Amino acid sequence: MPTYRDEVVVLRTHKLGEADRILTLLSRRNGKIRAVAKGVRRTSSKFGSRLEPFMVADVQLFKGRNLDIVQQAESLGAYGADIVVDYERYTTASAMVETADRLNEAEATPQQYLLLVGGLRALARGEHSERSVLDSYLLRAMALSGWAPGLTECARCGTVGDHDYFLPQLGGMVCSTCAPAGSPRVAPDTVGMLRALMAGEWDTIDAAPGRTTAAASGLVAAYAQFHLERGIRSLSHLESHQ
């Protein structure tokens, strides 16, 4: 059908001409969408503010040959306003939508959409620390894309147990037999933090000491960037601010 509706998260925008924008959207039912929003940069636009990055909207689109066209937009989650006023929230949200934008069409599933919406909502409401929201999002987004890290068994040989080494290139925790010589050990509380982040156990995450949170964050960043095959630009801004 030439016209369709969907729920979307605005991942990024680009100026087009004098008044239009090209939008990259992660949708609930149609994967990633690139669309034109005409006239949204004019002050008289009725829905320009609903189509800014980090916003969640119910949109009606016309199916175009190269780019779809946004015809209507109703706000479902005005998270952008609360995110852009705080630097850490902004850089965290930027890293999240940048990761979502890296998804290929096969990975842009309804589950990825719901995960991103939940993460942006938590950021906007200040429910948890920004970095923990990001770390949990990254681990779970990787898992939904088929890259779940091994945390309860050796990612290489499958031996179940509490292992001491985390190697992104091998898929997560590995046993002493599989770990290359000289691999750094990971503290048990850091492993527990990784498991809590993956499971969304927020009582455990929020109560963790700063050193444990920082250690886990470093491993999550290394794991995500290894499997995305290039760095997350926004993540470097977040790390330099800490």
From TrEMBL:
Biological process, per Gene Ontology: DNA recombination; double-strand break repair
Domain DNA replication/recombination mediator RecO N-terminal: 1-78
One GO location term (cellular component): bacterial nucleoid
InterPro entries noted in UniProt: ARFGAP/RecO (IPR037278), DNA_rep/recomb_RecO_N (IPR022572), NA-bd_OB-fold (IPR012340), RecO (IPR003717), RecO_C (IPR042242)
Job of this protein: Involved in DNA repair and RecF pathway recombination.
Family recorded in the similarity comment: Belongs to the RecO family.
Protein name from the UniProt record: DNA repair protein RecO
Lineage: Bacteria, Bacillati, Actinomycetota, Actinomycetes, Micrococcales
Gene designation: recO
